[in-house]
Amino acid sequence: MGLFALAGLGACDGNDTETPAGATVPKATSSTTPENQYAVPAAIDAAYLNKVFAALEHVDGDATRLIVAGKNLVPEAAKRLRAIYAEEEFNAQVNLWLDIIIEKRLDRLKPSPGDRSSVTTKVHTAAPECVFVAVMRDYSPVAIAAGPPDLEYVTLRPVDPQRDPFDLNPTPWMIEAAGLRSDGSIASNPCA
Amino acid sequence: MWSDIAAAADSNIDVRRDATGEKIQYGGNIPGQAGGQKATGGGGGGGARGAAAKPVYIGRAPVLGLDSNGQSCVTTERSTFDTASEAANFEAAQEQRWRTLFSQYALCPGAELPQADPAVLAEVFWGEVLLPKPVPRIQPGWAMTGRLAYLETQAPMTQTFTRDTPLGPLTITATGEFLVDWGDGTRTGPHGTAGAPWPDGRITHGYVTAGTVDVVLTERWRATWTLAARTGTLTALSTEGVIADLPVREVQAVRNR
């Protein structure tokens, strides 16, 4: 495993709150501390979500770097994808990666990829049990010929601790779905 | 580009972008695979369920599950189809995914294998076997211009590998042939017989010029597999051996009288 692959992996500074095993709703707190910077605030806003997205995209970026270095969907990468994606989305991400590998499209990725960025443009729903937002996603740190940042819709749900036994996801959130509508229309809000 | 990527749960999102930024479109609002619907269990294979029931056909796709140690492993997700050909086409489309995942992950305990494709199991096994390397030799450790050099290959030309699988015993029979780079610009082969020393050897070469050469002997392996009353061929593999810095000497007769 290349050193760069894990460089910058942060310590697990996420959910320090005492969440019962199997709990599905993260606790809302009125303040954050450096030790618990991803704790769910009383009011979930774009600034908080952007911080969460940066952390999630960094884990996704680590997975990408491991895949590029290993030229395959190596187990360490799968651990990271599982830690940040809900089951359905995880399976979809696995299939996306398998198709890139099988179709020999890994050379379309940068040799040392950075982290994709997701910046919140509109918060449709921001509740402790479900977040649905529009984001501008930029693939240029990852892909050689990425287009300009483009709109996508992302649903976040409280993380399932069983999906992340190695504490790779520093946030209390996982991505339930991310994508867009082929006809350009606004995706329906699964939190509504 | 259409794909069988799962649709987003509880959402009408129908396009995802992969890491390259490419948009991957998938079908509609069925939370399963395109053209199919996730099965919730039941017996394998297709066929009618009851006299009035519509036939249901099962297609299997690989997904990554977790074992009891929290490690990823390959397991099976079933989708149902209306026709046998749809299910067969679906399974055929999964073959490369099975192979790619099996190159990195073990099968989850108790997981179902793709029934339709023992070729996947054979290819996985073929990637794991240790093929013998040739150990080329030319006696007496150097060659002479104007005289044939006899290359000894010192490697078996057939190998048989077996492994038990849930589908029964898998047997791979591999056959090798030799290709020689004599190091002076001459390449010969494929040779279908093993190289032996003088006087019986059949892999020979006459050097013209004195010097030092590297002789590279490549054994190219072709293999067939047998499993569950099916057979097939496997990707060719090669092993290699080298004689480095072989002296090629020129010997002159000296007349004393």
Can you walk me through this structure?
The complex is a heterodimer of chains A (192) and B (257). Chain A has 192 residues and is of the alpha+beta class. Helices cover 29% and strands 21% of the residues of chain A. Chain A has 4 helices and 6 strands; from the N terminus they run H-E-E-H-H-H-E-E-E-E. With 257 residues, chain B is mainly beta. In chain B, the strands form 4 sheets. In chain B, strands 8, 10, 11, 12, 14, 15 and 16 form a 7-stranded mixed beta sheet that branches. In chain B, helix 1 (84-102) runs parallel beside helix 2 (118-126). The longest helix of chain B has 19 residues, at 84-102. Mean pLDDT of chain B is 81; it is low at 1-7, 27-35 and 39-51. The chains are: A alpha+beta (192), B mainly beta (257). The A-B interface holds A 64, 72-75, 78-79, 82, 86, 88-92, 94-102, 105, 108-109, 113, 116, 137, 139, 142-143, 145-147, 150, 152-153, 155, 165-166, 176-182, 187-188, 190 and B 3-6, 8-25, 31, 63-64, 66, 70-72, 77, 96-97, 100-101, 103-105.
Summarize the structure.
Chain A is of the alpha+beta class. Chain A has helices spanning 3-6, 46-70, 75-84, 87-102, and strands at residues 28-29, 40-41, 117-127, 130-138, 150-158, 173-179.
